């Protein structure tokens, strides 16, 4: 019985033709990179341009989602483009933690 088992195992290991290495095929996934987009122009402070400005910012966020994973990063990006520095300085005393979600920030920014 042992000799039959040993013969079966040896015949399985020799089933690979000579010169061919029996190894798993390594599959490499393609690497995806964030698409860089031009930044929107600085927001001039005109209420009529608010929706277009926010749309442009959303396009940047959607094209580079890995760069904008967190609400604070999105808020920082928009604040960097605001021509309303007095409003931003009055609203946010701590520039590391904004104390609101991105959605809340957008709602307040629109009003």
UniProtKB/TrEMBL annotation:
Its ancestry begins with: Eukaryota, Metazoa, Chordata, Craniata, Vertebrata
Positions of the region Disordered? Answer: 1-23
Q: Where is the composition biased (Low complexity)?
A: 1-15
Instruction: Give the protein name, as stated in the record.
Output: Uncharacterized protein
Note the superkingdom of the native organism.
Eukaryota
């Amino acid at each position: 019985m042992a000799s039959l088992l040993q013969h079966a195992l040896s015949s399985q290991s020799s089933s690979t033709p000579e010169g061919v290495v029996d190894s798993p095929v390594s599959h490499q996934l393609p690497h995806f990179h964030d698409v860089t987009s031009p930044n929107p122009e600085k927001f001039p402070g005109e209420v009529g341009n608010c929706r277009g400005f926010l749309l442009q910012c959303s396009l940047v966020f959607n094209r580079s989602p890995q760069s904008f994973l967190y609400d604070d990063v999105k808020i920082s990006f928009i604040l960097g483009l605001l021509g309303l520095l007095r409003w931003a300085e009055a609203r946010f005393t701590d520039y590391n933690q904004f104390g609101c979600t991105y959605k809340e920030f957008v709602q307040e920014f629109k009003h």
